[in-house]
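Incident log entry.

Two folding requests arrived from the same account within the same minute. Monitoring flagged them as a possible duplicate submission, but the sequences differ. Recording both here for audit purposes.

Request one:
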Amino acid sequence: MKMKYALYLGCLIPAREIGYELSARRTLQALGVDLTDISGASCCAPFSIQSLDYLSWLALASRNLCLAEEMGLNILALCNDCYESLMMVNKILKQEKGLKNQVNEILSKVGKEFKGKVEVKHMIDVLYEDVGLDKMADFVKRPLKGLRVATQPGCHLVRPKMLHGGIGLEFEALDQLVKILGAEPVSYERRDVCCGGPLRDIDDDLARSLSRDKLAGIKKANIDCLITVCPFCYIQFDLGQMELQSLRKEEFNVPVLHFTELLSLAMGFDPTDVELKEHRIPIKKLLQKL
């Protein structure tokens, strides 16, 4: 039976990370996940909006939930921030009738009403829980034997614990998915620490220091590549390495890939089929090793 979802891309992925979008679309489709774009979707109103105006955050995010409700489909999000924002608003409005009424009063001005009829899932949850490890294993055509991988789920996929049930769960899910592809997930120093991305444009030097320390741990662990499922983590480590090289004269040369890009390679897709060319840190040696 086909698994059907309303695909929520967010703002960053279609603007700057086409490799993530294309590899996700092609691999999920091959695995039997039917994705329908949400027509008219807007920004998820991430955590920064929540801290500025709580009610505006609820209303902006819930409008996207309304669009999925009209489609009759649960949401699949690729971006950690989008996932967290939409999931939190969905849970809050389902639980708090007073806030739901306030939000619906705002939404009525654009002809929408939040009814609480859909759920929000991250792409990792869909792969791990809905598709399942056994089915994914059947689709691995090119096992990634000998590949040592550092995994980076990202903060907003695992925090706050009250929503996600603990940091270890999503780390374990991502590690298990990497293992199914034939690669080896390898632990490294400061693995649980933020990449520093949220501090960009607030304290750039501190943001770079956080990513630099994680990259040093990855390099020390003799890892072939870093895998992310968060578009902001991806930028922080891929573009961030270029900044460290330019500003601090430090080179790490750690290839950074979206998990779905690694998945596409294991499933036998040609790199040209999923736009594996947006990487600032070259991945040519990694592809040759595979």
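Request two (distinct sequence, not a duplicate):
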Amino acid sequence: MPFETLNTGIELTLPTSGTNNWGTTLKNTTWTKISGHDHTGSGDGLQLTASTALVDNSITTIKLSKNYGWTQASTLTPAGTTQDIDFDNGNVQILDLGSATGNVTVTVSNLAQGSLYTVFIIQSATARTITWPASVKWPQGQAIILSTANNAKDYVQMYHDGTELQVLSWDLDLN
């Protein structure tokens, strides 16, 4: 039985003749429609290309980052006593308390249900504390007490269940 191979990123071998000739139908109809479809949702039949999709914002780096592994944002440096951690910028965040003028109250934004988030915290020369939002749920209801040494590094790993950020683990003074 003759076969034809299509390049889809994986090798797909299809029968193209004989009594099981479903491969020709797949190639000539379904595959042509899939490979020629504009996945931006406009339905104009144009293939999706990185240059046009990024320019017209149908694909953004934020949307892409949510589809693979861990992404790390730039280091957050609170200028006062508040800091928003925007998880659209990456699910791994670094919060450097060195620039804070006092203890820091944290807010979180752009959480995705089922996602894991990690926040690394770098302590300042003057020890700072963090007040976490009520939506962050700690084991036994008690938030961690941060390391107090200058430049001490602590981390908190959390899971978003759709409503709350459940703290899964933390480690103090990674130095």
